[in-house]
Write a structure and sequence with these properties.
The protein is α/β, with parallel strands linked by helices. Helix content is 44%, strand content 22%. The protein has a three-stranded parallel sheet with strand order 1-2-3, sandwiched between helices. Helix 1 (17-28) links the parallel strand 1 and strand 2 (32-37). The two termini are 19 Å apart.
Length: 73
């Protein structure tokens, strides 16, 4: 995964389950991770455990949140 070090990943559904596991693994491997989900408190908990994670609370079913998330990358 050296080729991904320093790059940015957007992980949706990062507040729990597979999304949280993927976000944590990518951050540990040196990627900058924008973690998105509806539950901001869980995202913030994840960000305190792993460096290189930025949290972004999203509202589902709102097209503007997708374009707002893209601006973070």
């Amino acid at each position: 995964m050296d080729r991904w070090e320093g790059r940015t990943a957007l992980v949706a559904g990062a507040s729990s389950g597979i999304g949280a596991a993927c976000a944590a693994l990518l951050a540990r491997k040196g990627m900058k991770v924008v973690a998105c989900a509806r539950r901001k408190e869980r995202l913030e908990e994840l960000a305190t455990k792993e460096k290189n994670i930025w949290v972004y609370k999203v509202r589902t079913k709102t097209p503007t949140t997708i374009s707002e998330g893209n601006k973070l990358i």
